[in-house]
Amino acid sequence: ECEDLIAKGVTGTGQGFDAPGRRLGGFSHTPPLSSLRQVTLHAAERRAQLSALLPSGPRRLGGDSNIMSSLSPIQAAAMAAERRLHDDLWCGAESYDDPCGTESDTMNHRQSSVKRHFEVLNSSMASNMDMSK
């Protein structure tokens, strides 16, 4: 095969593509120096906008720690029970053993959940009043 190519006048270094190469598309990975300042400014403005929307670094979820430090454990438990009660009333997604339960089963489950949360709240508030006496 090599002898056939040599007979046809095809020669080369054997290193690969021997024809003169030109870049297609005109795209350069390095921006020209004239627009480098503008590109840098645009990137900095974009970072500032994104950091205002999405702050970086760790964030503690669950509210203000200053409020929680001034509460007794009983008060904090009562507030947590109240939040769970509001979440149960607001959120329609609950897990059941029987996914094909009737609407009355759903209402009974919701009422028992609300009743249980009120019992926790009442017991927490009663024990809080007993401790304050």
What does this structure look like?
This protein is mostly helical and 133 residues long. The protein has a domain at 103-133. It is built from five helices and no strands. It has helices at residues 2-8, 33-53, 65-70, 73-90, 103-132. The relative contact order is 0.07. The mean pLDDT is 73. This is WLM domain-containing protein. It comes from Nymphaea colorata (pocket water lily). Residues 1-86 form the WLM domain. Pfam families: WLM (PF08325).
- Radius of gyration computed on alpha carbons: 36 Å
Number of helices in the DSSP assignment: 5
The number of strands is 0
Show unreliable segments: none
Return the average pLDDT rounded to an integer. 73
Note the beta-strand portion: under 5%
In one word, what is the shape? elongated
Structural class: mainly alpha
The largest sheet, given as strand count, sense and whether it forms a barrel, is: none
Helix content: 55-70%
> Roughly how many Å apart are the termini?
104 Å
Compressed to H and E, one letter per element, the order equals HHHHH
GO molecular function: metallopeptidase activity
Protein name: WLM domain-containing protein
Pfam family, one: WLM
InterPro entries: WLM_dom (IPR013536), WSS1-like_metalloprotease (IPR053000)
Briefly, what is this?
This protein is mostly helical and 133 residues long. It is 62% helix and 0% strand.
Key features?
133 residues; 0% strand; mainly alpha; single chain; 5 helices
How do the strands and helices of this protein lay out in sequence?
Layout: H1 2-8, H2 33-53, H3 65-70, H4 73-90, H5 103-132
Helix pairs in contact: 4-5
